[in-house]
UniProtKB/TrEMBL annotation:
InterPro entries: Homeodomain-like_sf (IPR009057), HTH_AraC (IPR018060). It comes from Roseibium alexandrii (strain DSM 17067 / NCIMB 14079 / DFL-11) (Labrenzia alexandrii). The chain crosses the membrane at residues 6-24, 36-61, 67-86, 93-109, 115-137, 157-180, 186-209. PROSITE patterns: HTH_ARAC_FAMILY_2. One of its GO terms (molecular function) is sequence-specific DNA binding. Residues 235-335 form the HTH araC/xylS-type domain. The lineage of its organism: Bacteria, Pseudomonadati, Pseudomonadota, Alphaproteobacteria, Hyphomicrobiales. This is AraC-type DNA-binding domain-containing protein. The keyword Transcription regulation applies. It holds the Pfam family HTH_18. Keywords: DNA-binding, Membrane, Transcription, Transcription regulation, Transmembrane, Transmembrane helix.
């Protein structure tokens, strides 16, 4: 049967992960907050499970049942925060927060047969496992809010989290069946085995995350120390062009700096020294060049060209184009067609 030291050991490992993530500066602030909250809930959940199965303390049973419906969406939102900027995350946080709140009310709803909580938790984990799987299948490049050198590591961590969610679904299903047949002792043993497996997994991830945090910080500092301004500018240009990042209308200097692997100020200083431009001017220069190419090689209207090139507003597009080519986009297209 499960013992309280084993449960507390797992809680301690989750706490170690929590502290590692909080102090990992390579992650955006919003991502650190999401992962910290997720791990804090996991710490509580493991403690409550231990108290229930080791000491027969059922005082925290309502909390133990309601926490999983928050854990699943938080796992998904944590990795989503590595993909999108905070401005785009607000609607996702609101939507999934409402879903989790409704699920929590269903779990806590008074009833004689405690079947509904198991069904709600199973549906929650299934739905968010599917969402996380879809997110993972997009590849490491989807994790655009962190430095490039960290995307592979966090993509693999996402795979571990996904596998853990699927395993949790299977184990919880087995526990529910055992309880339905009054096999409490067998259920306790299954919880023990699952806990031991989770301890091994979390310990491995904890070591991996700590090594990645140190390596990520070193890698992030390397371009600034060894490469100088020219290498930073070249890398920024390569990231923008090869990954077509300039097309993203929500691109920020902070996000570009993370992709390059240098601090915001270092990127801004390097571009200013090497090109005499701000980061936004540097990006807009590529956007204008792409807009000129599209105007010359396609019949797409100016508004469509503007969107494909990465401009958010018509006024900004026309202003930057006029500055670069000395004429509006329509006149430029006519001039190039006449030349042909």
């Amino acid at each position: 049967m499960i013992s309280i030291p084993v449960s507390f050991l797992l809680a301690a490992l989750f706490l170690g992960l929590l502290l590692s993530v909080v102090f990992w500066r390579g992650l955006p602030v919003i991502a650190r907050l999401c992962f910290a909250l997720l791990l804090a809930l996991l710490v509580l959940e493991t403690v409550f499970v231990g108290l229930r199965f080791a000491f027969g303390i059922f005082s925290f049973l309502p909390l133990q049942r309601v926490l999983p419906v928050w854990i699943a969406p938080l796992a998904f939102l944590s990795f989503l925060s590595l993909t999108q900027a905070l401005e785009r995350l607000r609607k996702s946080f609101l939507f999934h927060g409402v879903i989790a709140s409704v699920a929590a009310m269903l779990v806590l709803f008074p009833q004689e047969a405690r079947v509904l909580p198991d069904v709600v938790i199973a549906l929650s984990f299934t739905a968010y496992a599917v969402l996380l799987a879809r997110h993972w299948l997009r590849g490491p490049d989807e994790l655009s809010q962190i430095p490039v050198q960290l995307t592979g590591r966090w993509h693999r961590i996402e795979a571990v989290v996904l596998a853990t969610m699927i395993a949790t679904l299977i184990v919880d299903g087995g526990i529910a069946v055992l309880f339905a047949h009054s096999e409490e002792r067998a259920a306790a043993w299954l919880v023990s085995l699952a806990t031991l497996g989770l301890i091994t997994t979390v310990a491995a991830v904890l070591m991996w995350v700590n090594l990645g945090a140190k390596g990520g910080l070193r890698a992030a500092a390397r371009p600034a120390l060894n490469g100088g301004n020219e290498k930073i500018v070249q890398k920024a240009h390569g990231v923008l062009v090869e990954q077509e990042l300039f097309r993203d209308t929500g691109l920020t200097a902070t996000r570009l700096a993370r992709r390059v692997g240098v601090p915001d100020r270092e990127l801004s200083r390097a571009i200013n020294a090497g090109k005499g431009q701000s980061v936004s001017q540097f990006v807009n220069h590529l956007r204008v060049e792409e807009a000129a190419r599209l105007l010359t090689t396609t019949d797409a209207p100016a508004t469509q060209v503007m969107e494909k090139a990465g401009f958010l507003t018509r006024s900004n597009f026309y202003r930057e184009f006029q500055k670069r080519y000395g004429m509006p986009p329509g006149d430029y297209r006519k001039k190039m067609q006449a030349a042909d």
